[in-house]
Design brief:
The protein is an alpha/beta fold. Helices cover 54% and strands 8% of the residues. The chain folds into 2 domains: 2-183, Rossmann fold; 204-384, Hypothetical protein af1432 (Orthogonal Bundle), CATH 1.10.3210. The chain has helices at 15-27, 53-64, 75-79, 85-95, 107-111, 119-125, 138-152, 168-174, 188-195, 204-213, 220-237, 241-250, 259-268, 275-279, 281-295, 301-308, 319-330, 339-348, 350-367, 374-384, and strands at residues 2-8, 32-37, 70-72, 100-106, 127-131, 156-158. It binds adenosine-5'-triphosphate.
């Protein structure tokens, strides 16, 4: 068997890593590749604030789960300490006695190969399979390969393909700026956003795509309008514009779900319900939407609150909660008697606009024979004395 071994920190894993493995499998006709995230890399410091080894292992598994002929090993993370390749190779040599081992590495690793611990022992156990990470690197790789061959009798194969020009370092810079999504294999980005690893904040385009996929198509225009309005209101009243955008994009993501699904989501996210809510699915979507925003999209408590209270309102609403409640009410697609007045008021006196909004929705419910929720009655009482 021809077995490839691909070590790295994978902090985080990206398309550059996955492409390299896929290309090596094809071009070297490898039967299998073991991807091995290290516990502590010998050559560099792990960036501050990085997730721990278990988390990197999980991300790496997600990154490679769709690559045929490849598996992710926890052997270095389980071993702990500094992960020297020579130790890993000795174990694998022992286990795969009759197989040919290929140690896969990019140019950066190869060019400092003579600094690796016991590099000559490594050369005696494996062929180095080396690839460029960017254009213009190949000449240097050829020279280095020739030198290692002459000096140590090294077996080096240069693998030619167009690499994805990116590094984990670059990605760690991009993630907090809502960028970098295009460098990730499916699933990795979602996991990073969900846990807000690396200080990641979701790319708005990605977040919209996810949110709209959960809506009935007819509701997309409303959510777009709500986002626009929420941003305008947040700017007008000094609320956090980014949080307003996240909350608006996600506020209706469970709107189409039926009561049984709503109840399942409430149980999943530990959301407690009162009597009315247990039987009225419409009131639940704000709570379950908030649950998904927090636990699946990593939104913070302010965004959670803004989504959670966007249907009923409540006493003592925070600024972001007011902004989302109002944006939902007056976004450009809304059309009802009094909407223009309410729109004007929302930009001159937000609290009076809320008061008017609560009154209108209570009146509307009463006229339709629906009992207004206690929270909304409480919200009206609070805001009218505010
Ligand atoms: P960092 O930027 O944190 O140094 P990295 O992107 O170089 O990280 P590592 O996990 O250190 O990623 O790399 C593991 C292996 O993958 C190394 O052999 C490295 O050369 C290779 N590699 C990394 N990025 C690419 C890429 N874009 N294309 C091909 N190989 C890559």
């Amino acid at each position: 068997m021809k077995l490839g071994i691909f070590g790295g920190t994978f902090n985080p894993p990206h398309k550059g890593h996955v492409t390299a493995v896929k290309e090596c499998i094809v071009r070297l006709k490898l039967d299998h590749v073991l991807v091995i995230p290290d516990a502590l890399p010998p050559h560099k410091e792990i960036a501050e604030g990085s997730p721990d080894g278990r988390e990197r292992l999980k991300l790496t598994k997600i990154a490679f789960e769709r690559v045929k002929g490849c598996s992710v090993s926890d052997m270095e993370i389980a071993r702990g300490g500094v992960s020297y390749t020579v130790d890993t190779l000795r174990r694998l040599r022992e286990k795969y006695k009759n197989d040919r081992l290929f140690l896969l590495m990019g140019a950066d690793m190869f060019l400092c190969f003579e600094q690796w611990r016991e590099f000559e022992a490594i050369l005696s156990m494996a062929t180095l399979a080396v690839f460029a990470r960017r254009d213009g690197e190949r000449e240097e790789l050829y020279r280095m390969a020739e030198r290692l061959r002459l000096a140590y009798g090294a077996n080096v194969k240069l693998v030619e393909f167009d690499a994805v020009e990116v590094s984990s370092t670059r990605i760690r810079e991009l993630l907090p700026r809502r960028k970098g999504v295009e460098y990730f294999p499916a699933g990795v980005y979602s996991e990073i956003v969900k846990k807000r690893l690396y200080g990641a904040k979701p790319d708005y385009g990605w977040l919209r795509q996810k949110a709209y996929a959960m809506l009935e198509p007819k509701r997309v225009a409303h959510v777009k309008g709500c986002e626009e309005e929420a941003v305008r209101l947040a700017e007008r009243w000094g609320a956090d514009v980014e949080k307003a955008r996240e909350a608006a994009i996600l506020h209706d993501i469970t709107k189409k779900e039926k009561l049984d699904e709503q109840l399942r989501l409430c149980a999943k996210y530990g959301i407690e319900l009162d009597e009315v809510e247990r039987t009225e699915g419409k009131l639940l979507h704000s709570k379950t939407g908030a649950g998904i925003a927090k636990y699946e999209f990593g939104c913070d408590d302010e965004v959670y609150g803004a989504i959670f209270w966007h249907t009923t309102g409540k006493e003592n609403m925070a600024l972001l909660e007011k902004v989302i409640y109002m944006a939902d009410y007056i976004e450009p697609n809304r059309d009802f008697d009094g909407v223009e007045r309410l729109r004007r008021l929302a930009y001159t006196d937000l609290d009076r606009a809320l008061e008017m909004g609560f009154e209108m929705s209570i009146d509307d419910m009463v006229s339709r024979g629906i009992q207004p929720h206690d929270r909304t009655l409480g919200a009206l009482d609070w805001i009218s004395h505010h």
